[in-house]
Amino acid sequence: MTTPTDDLVRRARTGDAEAWRALYRAHAGRLVVWLGTRPTGDAAVSADDVAAEAWLVAARRIAEFDGDDEEFAGWLFGIARRVGLNLHRRSARRGTTPTEAPPETSHHEGPEESRVAIDWARQVLQRLPPRERDVVACTEVVGLDVATTAQALGISAVAVRVARHRGLRRLRDQPDLAGVRPRP
């Protein structure tokens, strides 16, 4: 039995522009937020650049994809993770680091509270080891489920659960974060 989201993915596979727009609206914002929590190690590689490249790869490879909307999210996030790693490696090989860091800009301009909350989340997540940071960002920041997170990060669902548990415990154990919420 097909659901409306399965139909959306099926339509996108056939090149339906409206279906692509709907998938983009559903996943683009949280993809950029998630990519923004991942360290690139290179000021020349922004979350927006990685997301744009990931969408292009997804459009080229959609015919190979077989799944529903939630599986599409995991597939897309996995593509973005690999694209980010490739862009970082390519930039490191070419030595294309800018002499001056570009100003921090966001295409997701919203209320001031939203920007403050995102900055706060990034600072908090930087305290975690890389795997825990990626898992907590996927599950807690952008709201992916365990299976989708596992697919996006290329790890098992058990590894996701363990990393999530450890990461949240580490954050709870930090005295300066106990009961703290981001402030505008």
Automatic annotation (TrEMBL):
Chain residue ranges for the region called Disordered: 90-115
A Pfam entry, by short name: Sigma70_r4_2
Keywords, sorted A to Z: Sigma factor, Transcription, Transcription regulation
Compositional bias segments (type: Basic and acidic residues): 105-115
Start and end residues of each RNA polymerase sigma factor 70 region 4 type domain: 120-171
InterPro entries in the cross-refs: RNA_pol_sigma-70-like, RNA_pol_sigma-70_dom, RNA_pol_sigma70_r2, RNA_pol_sigma70_r4_t2, RNA_pol_sigma_r2, RNA_pol_sigma_r3/r4-like, WH-like_DNA-bd_sf
All copies of domain RNA polymerase sigma-70 region, residue ranges: 23-93
Similarity field: Belongs to the sigma-70 factor family. ECF subfamily.
Protein name: Sigma-70 family RNA polymerase sigma factor
Native organism: Nocardioides kribbensis
Lineage: Bacteria, Bacillati, Actinomycetota, Actinomycetes, Propionibacteriales
